[in-house]
Amino acid sequence: MTTYIPAEFDCSLALQVRTICRMERMINLHIEKLPEGFYLATSDDLPGLVAQGRTIQETLEIARDVGKKLLEAREERAGAPILPVIADKFDYPLVISG
């Protein structure tokens, strides 16, 4: 959903409106390595999200794109998504290869 804001609006108000319309949401992903060497991501939080890639990074990028499209479709049908908005603080597992 894209919101267009007329130029005559106050910049701070425009920023607030854009922030409300484009809040980031957080979902949990299940990632598993397949026997073929690919990675598969699914989510119980967002049914229908399935992504596959050659690396974890590629799988996460694909999952993000698929999730965005699923949320946009859900918003068009039923309104705002049920997923939680990202808090000011949260834990994030960082994967480092070595």
Write up what this structure looks like:
This protein has 98 residues and is α+β, with helices and mostly antiparallel strands. It has a domain at 26-78: Double Stranded RNA Binding Domain, CATH 3.30.160. It has helices spanning 11-21, 56-78, and strands at residues 30-33, 39-42, 50-53. The protein has a 3-stranded antiparallel beta sheet with strand order 1-2-3, with helices on one face. A hairpin with a 5-residue loop joins strand 1 (30-33) and strand 2 (39-42). The longest helix is centred in the last third of the chain and has 23 residues, at 56-78. The protein is globular, with a radius of gyration of 17 Å. Residues 1-21 have low confidence and may be disordered.
- Can you tell me the CATH topology of the domain at 26-78? Double Stranded RNA Binding Domain
Major sheet details: 3 strands, antiparallel
Number of helices: 2
Spatially, the strands of the biggest sheet line up as: 1-2-3
Chart the SSEs and their pairings.
Layout: H1 11-21, E1 30-33, E2 39-42, E3 50-53, H2 56-78
Task: List descriptors.
Double Stranded RNA Binding Domain, 3 strands, globular, 98 residues, alpha+beta, 35% helix
Q: What is this entry, summarized?
A:
The protein has helices at 11-21, 56-78; strands at 30-33, 39-42, 50-53. By secondary structure, the protein is α+β, with helices and mostly antiparallel strands. The protein has a domain at 26-78: Double Stranded RNA Binding Domain (2-Layer Sandwich), CATH 3.30.160.
